[in-house]
Amino acid sequence: MTVLAGLAADVQHLPGPVFHGKVSSCSGMTVEVEGLERRLAVGDACRVFARDGRPLACEVIGFSVGRAVLMPFGPLDGLGLGCRVETGGEPASFRPSLSWLGRVVDGFGRPVDGRGPLSRGDENRVLRAAPPHAYERRRIGPRLETGLRVVDTFVPLCRGQRLGVFAGSGVGKSTLLAMLARSSAADVNVIGLIGERGREVQEFIQDDLGPEGLARSVVVVATSDEPALMRRQAAWLTLGLAEYFRDQGRDVLCMMDSVTRFAMAQREIGLSAGEPPTTKGYPPTVFAELPRLLERAGPGREGTGDITGIFTVLVEGGDHDEPVADAVRGILDGHLVLTRSIAERGRYPAADVLKSVSRALPGCHSDEENLTMGRARALLARYESMEELVRLGAYKAGSDPELDLAIRANEPLESFLRQGKTETTASADAFARLQGILDGLAPEPPLPEAPVHKRLPRPAG
């Protein structure tokens, strides 16, 4: 049956009839084609042949004045009026297999790690698959061990949950993802590097992820210099691969860095297709595509695994209410905020516990764990509210017993939240350490009173 399934998948990939047209206009990032408007639909693939015969893969993004509007997956150099266009090209499906683990691929599923071709599976997978129906999905599962103290205690992550990591540039998002990929209890990691700097890809794979993390991961890469279509395609492929491993019964940790660059790519595509810009220049399709992408992660149907999603959001200018961040926060099941001010004082991960929340609480923790976490959060909040006065020396010790406890707890809690890149802590040990910090905050004994020396009476005479 496996051989027959493979043959059936091969038959589906055989090219159908080819129809030809020609380039009638080329402007900006789009190409207009005549002669194929009745043969094409939005989302279809085409090939445009440059003057030197080089084929350029394109996708239909719309129609204008009786012409098909195409957007290329590469630069438009060499294209001119009358260049030949034909239907077909890169298929909108892919055929993954378990042998893809440990490999690095581009948005089309082609290997880019120099380790030879990838073996194809026996099933065609759709790039833009629909998520399971809401009534077919299981509820989120138990807590997923991540090995990160701040996550396992204050912002817990359950199997099938979707968590956003909100931060500015250079605050440690990629390093945090690599720590999760190495130490989490998930079976498979699917990592999408969408719009990343080209030089950082090898650093992330070799230094941050390492051989141990890569061995159970598939990495999808589309760097910032690649066209918008390729960046969007890479995001779709990331979720498509996660769905494949989920359907194999695996618990998948799907990580994407970043959703903001996916939204920027969709903005370029939408504006090129003639959509009107709205808030901050984002066209309406951006806010329609975000839930379609993010809802693909989550609990699976009965008999399958789960996709636990971690999606980073690049907060522009520190504004956590900008359109993309606000839309993503409303879709996901929690958010972990990384703050530049915390990173500047050298504490990594630079998580702001008080601004972060997991919608899996309180059910994700036991009653004792919730009490421990709540007490620690209260102390952190109390210290933050009076931090300026404490640092200025305007607070007199003993005036507020609760604040005195928060001051004594601040340094141990900061040490608890600080964690090295290669350091891993089990959640049980993390809670034991946190409880130990709280147990050590007994009120300091009062200073002994100074002895009163009575004056002896002077002798008479």
Automatic annotation (TrEMBL):
Signal peptide: none annotated. It is found in: Cytoplasm. Transmembrane segments: none annotated. SUPFAM superfamilies: P-loop containing nucleoside triphosphate hydrolases (SSF52540). Its EC number is 7.1.2.2. It comes from the Bacteria. Residues 159-343 form the AAA+ ATPase domain. It is an enzyme of class 7 (translocase). Residues 442-461 are annotated as: Disordered. CDD domains: ATPase_flagellum-secretory_path_III. Keywords: ATP synthesis, ATP-binding, Bacterial flagellum biogenesis, Bacterial flagellum protein export, Cell projection, Cilium, Cytoplasm, Flagellum, Hydrogen ion transport, Ion transport, Nucleotide-binding, Protein transport, Translocase, Transport. InterPro entries: AAA+_ATPase, ATPase_alpha/beta_chains, ATPase_F1/V1/A1_a/bsu_nucl-bd, ATPase_T3SS_FliI/YscN, FliI_clade3, P-loop_NTPase, T3SS_ATPase_C. The keyword Protein transport applies. Belongs to the ATPase alpha/beta chains family. This is Flagellum-specific ATP synthase.
